[in-house]
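Entry for the shared binder. Reason: the reviewer on the internal report wants the predicted structure included alongside the sequence.
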Amino acid sequence: MRILIDVGHPAHVHFFKNTIWSLEKKGHKIMVVSRDKDVVLELLTAYKIPHTVLSKVKPGKVHLLEELFIREYKILKIAKQFDPDVLMGILSPNIAQIAWILRKKSIIFNDTEHAVLVQKITYPFCDIICTPSCHLKYEGKKQINYSGYHELAYLHPSYFNPHNEIIKELGVEVGEPFIILRFITWEAHHDVGQRGIENKLRLVQELEKFGKVFITSEGPLSEEFKKYKIRVTSEKIHHLLYYATLYVGEGATMAVESAILGTPSIYVSTLAGTMGNFSELEEHYGLLFNYSDSEAALAKALELLKNPELKKTWSLKRAALLRDKIDVTEFIVKLIESLPVKKSRISLPAVSDESYA
């Protein structure tokens, strides 16, 4: 089969990378189109994934709309040349719409319930909508639920093995406490109008009392935070998250990644409580905490850091989660290979509910 994949965010690189490699080993042809956002290009280069850059992120709502049209035109042109059987993306309206125009099959993945506007211009055009089983919304007959999270496509033990020598690049010894913070720019389509950590400097100063603090940021850091910047290559971040004592941040993906890796995770955002994966990780597994109030989040962070058995407790919680969840990459590959090669009116393959929900 010939498969076109849209990668628009660093998390998308991780989500699709094992699927790409697995499909290529099976003889399928892959075309990746990318977006110059944060460390997307750096990651694709590090993983030696060939790709075509379609656009670069610019601040502002007007530029988001402009970029949407630019990507639509370029994907259409590329798809006509590549002639894919299947197009895939994470809530990508361009993928769904171009597949519909060319009468090709499309698979859309989504775990962000509140991205309503983009859903409205994506779902009507796609064939299949894949969501985690904890997804809070019923998306109609196109929906396939699976028992997992996006992040288990790359952090499942089948693919991820932590290397403790990487933390030494931070100047941290094995067993030494350290905290990772994540700041975002709030410019993504589903983040506009939201906010996160109110007093970043106070947060850093309080957490420093318990260990070294390191910051990863979607945008440039102000002068007062530059000394805390993580200075390892971006593909190594998950090893740091695995060995960290605590994660606190505005970044949703990194909050889930930390929880799945067995690191206590505190998500600070006015979006707290709106996503099923976050609710499940907090209420069912106790791996993550959601806060819209920065002071409450700081208080929880300090409470956790005073617990000497913190990492041991979270390791047991992580084991419980992994017993319940599937290998998401394996699910994606099986789903793709179960699709009919020629498109007519597509019916959902028998890979869904009973096997993966």
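Summary line for the report: Residues 351-357 have pLDDT under 50 and may be disordered.
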